[in-house]
Amino acid sequence: MTTTETTPAGAPLYARLWRGVPRELGFLLPLLPIVIAGTSITASVFFTGVGMIFILVGIFIVLAGLFVGRGFGYVEVLRLRAAGFPRITPPRWDHAARDGGWFAKLIGPVVDGHYWLYLLHTMIVNPIVGTVTWALTITWVSSALGGLTYWFWQRYIPLGDREWTFWGWLTGEPWVEVTDAAVRTSDSIFFLVVGILFTLTLPFVTRGLTRVHYGIGRGMLSAFASEGLREQVTGLAESRSAAVAAEGTALRRLERDIHDGPQQRLVRLQMDLAAADRKLDDDPDAARTLLKEALDQSREALDELRALSRGFAPPILLDRGLVAALESLAVRSAVPTTVVAELPEGTVLPAELERNAYFIAAEALTNAAKHAEASKATVTVRLADGLELVVTDDGSGGAAEVEGHGIAGLHERVRGLGGTLEITSPAGGPTVVTAHLPL
Question: What is the pTM of this model?
Answer without folding.
Answer: 0.52
